Amino acid sequence: MSELPGKLIIIRHGESEWNALGKWTGHTDVHLTTKGFREAAMMGECLRDIKIDYAFISQQMRTKETLEGVLDASGQYDVPYEVHAGINERSYGEYTGKNKWEMKEEVGEERFNAIRRGWDEPIPGGETLKTVYQRAMRAFREDILPRLKGGQNVLVVAHGNSIRALIKYIESVSDEDIGTIEMIFGTALIYVLDDEGKSIDKSVRSIDTSLPPA
Q: Model pTM?
């Protein structure tokens, strides 16, 4: 397999208002916190040396706010971007807006961990990670990968679960092992991929998300 000329950069949005409250957010449109905006700017500084040719964000406002902060801080003001439903966060159905840690007490640790990290764990009225994977892969194959093949460096700003779905394919993670994968805040994954979109090389950059807002 040959190496694609474009790099793929994946980051998670900065801290949102509901992240700060410990709520399952899903498709709910909430803004970044002050800390989240600061994280976006710090990530932009961290990626300043990488030319970004194109970006994809989800339909949730927190990814757009993160993208704007990243591009401003990296001095790349005119990068075209596309809003793509395929990389939306997982729908949490009836659990949307509920406090995660209260739910853990209610359903028990085993069920709670299965809901958060499992591959095909159902949620009333919501999506499994398997469902997220199916739509994220359509976005990856049909829209993201062609740009990488065309030599563009592509930034994807998405969510914990839609990023886990992409990682599953790119890094060939099994259904059983995907539960151990987490996309933490303040981390950028930088991939060199082959023709099939599989990882040839991966580097990770991180910011200190414990820092208070400036």
A: 0.96
